[in-house]
Write a structure and sequence with these properties.
CATH superfamily of the largest domain: Ribosomal protein L4/L1
Radius of gyration: 26 Å
Number of strands: 6
Order of helices and strands: EEHHHEHEHEHEH
CATH class of the largest domain: Alpha Beta
Distance between the termini: 17 Å
Largest sheet: 6 strands, mixed
Mean pLDDT: 93
Shape: elongated
Number of domains: 2
Strand order of the largest sheet: 2-1-3-6-4-5
Structural class: alpha/beta
Oligomer: single chain
Low-confidence stretches: none
Length: 208
């Protein structure tokens, strides 16, 4: 699949690049995508939730009623879970939600996500560029020139570029990532995927 290369002014440079079929042209594996997205979302969870059990509640331990014959559930002290203000039974405890995912599965998921974007013609390739200084206005002009201002944008760079990152940081719906930080969730979440030429080569090297 061939894609035209544009400059930041939105002009067609007349050059074309060929998207690697083994990365951008595979049959997407939905289950691999599901696992990769599930892992990403799980890793975002802090897991600091906590409720107090009856042994952690501050209160008297005196038995407040007879064991039987009261007509209701048996209860001991004021910290009983059957009473208002008592401890919670099997409440949440701090835990780590992250889980392991094989490298090949993660790579397959990224290839599947990129293939979906290629099928939907949601990939824009721009020649390598740089801003002289961080300037949000310059980034907005580039997005408008590429005619993708109405879409959620993910720009992928070959390596970190502080000026480009800072220029996009204040924009809602714009995200700048390096190839090394590219993940399935970010790709799927974007309406338009903007790749620089050097990033395209880096993706080939990583996912091949």
């Amino acid at each position: 699949m061939e894609v035209s290369v544009y400059n930041i002014k939105g002009e067609d440079t007349g050059r074309k690049v060929t998207l690697n079929e083994s990365i951008f042209g595979i049959e997407p594996n939905d289950h691999a995508i599901y696992l990769a997205v599930k892992q990403f979302m799980a890793n975002q969870r802090q897991g600091t939730h906590k409720s107090k059990e009856r042994s952690e509640i501050s209160g008297s331990t005196r038995k407040i009623g007879r064991q039987k014959g009261g007509g209701g559930a048996r209860r001991g002290d004021m910290n009983s879970p059957v009473l208002v203000g008592g401890g919670r039974v099997f409440g949440p405890k701090p835990r780590d939600y992250s889980f392991k995912l094989n490298k090949k599965v993660k790579a397959l998921a990224r290839k599947s996500a990129l293939s979906y974007k290629a099928q939907n013609n949601a990939i824009v390739v721009v020649e390598d560029f740089n801003f002289e200084q961080p300037k949000t206005k310059a980034f907005v002009e580039m997005v408008n020139n590429l005619k993708i201002s109405d879409k959620k944008l993910l720009m992928v760079l070959a390596e970190a570029n502080k000026n480009v990152y800072l220029s996009a940081r204040n924009l809602k719906g714009a995200n700048v990532q390096t190839v090394s930080g590219l993940n399935t969730y970010r790709v799927l979440d974007a309406g338009a995927l903007v790749l620089t030429e050097s990033a395209l080569s880096a993706i080939d090297n990583i996912l091949m």
